[in-house]
Amino acid sequence: MPDNAALLAEIETEMRVTAGWTGRAQLSPRVAAALAKVHREVFVAHGSEHAAYENRPLPIGCGQTISQPYIVALMTELLDLNPNDKVLEVGTGSGYQAAVLAELTDQVYSIEVIPELARRAASAVATEGYHNIKLRTGNGALGWPEEAPFDAIIVTAAAPQIPPALVEQLRAGGRMMIPVGPRHGDQTLMLIIKNDAGEVTQRDILPVAFVPLTSG
Q1: Model confidence over 30-59: pLDDT tens digits?
Q2: Active-site residue among 67, 94, 123, 215?
Q3: Which residues does 202 contact at the CB level (< 8 Å), separation at least 6?
Q4: Residue pair 124/95 in contact by the 8 Å Cβ criterion
Q5: What is the C-alpha to C-alpha distance for residues 111 and 212, in angstroms, rounded to an integer?
Q6: What pLDDT was estimated at residue 202?
Q7: Active site includes 123?
Q8: Residue partners of 66: CB distance under 8 A and separation at least 6
Q9: All domains of the chain, ordered by start, with CATH?
C-alpha cells in the first residue's frame, strides 16, 4: 500500500503540472502538514483501506465517493485558510475533507444530505479526536444560516449553478471553492471571491468530475 509520504509527493507533482491553470505550483506548508497528519484509511469504505493512499477517488457507499487527494489538497489550498477562520463544508461524505480542514482552523461546520454517511462521518471524526467539527444532516445548498457568515465555504459535489444561499452566507472578504456543472456533463472547479464591498467574482480553475449535489 502506498504511504502518505508517497501520496504527498504525487500531489506536489500534480500541483506543479497544473500550476498554469490553478496559479499554485506547490502546497503551502500548513496544507501539506494537514494532509500528512490525517489518516485517510479511517475515512474510506471498509475493504478499501489498501487503496487509501492512492491518488484517486474511492467509493464510500450510497453512490458517493471520497475525492481524489489532489483535488482535496487543491481546493483546500485555494481557500487560503487562517487558524481562526470559520469554514462551511457542503457534502461531508466520509469526513475526510472536514478532518483536513479541522487541522487548519478551529471552526468547521459540515453538512451531509445522506443520513447513513453523516452517521459514519460523525463516528470517524470522533474516533480521530476532532472536536472542532460540527456536523448536520440536511440540504447543503441551503447552507447553515444560523452560523453564517463563513470566512470560507467548500462544496464537495457538483452544483448545476452556484447556490445563492451559499454566496449570501459567505463573509465579505471570503472565498468559496465549488464544482459547477451538470451530472455526467462538463464540470468546472470554480473559485468564488466576495470582496470587502460584498461584490462577487468567480474564476474557473480546472475541469473536474464530481458526484452531483443533491437536496435529499
Answers
A1: 999 999 999 999 999 888 999 999 999 998
A2: 67
A3: 162, 190, 191, 192, 193
A4: yes
A5: 15
A6: 96
A7: no
A8: 40, 43, 44, 57, 58, 60, 93, 94, 96
A9: 4-208 (3.40.50.150)
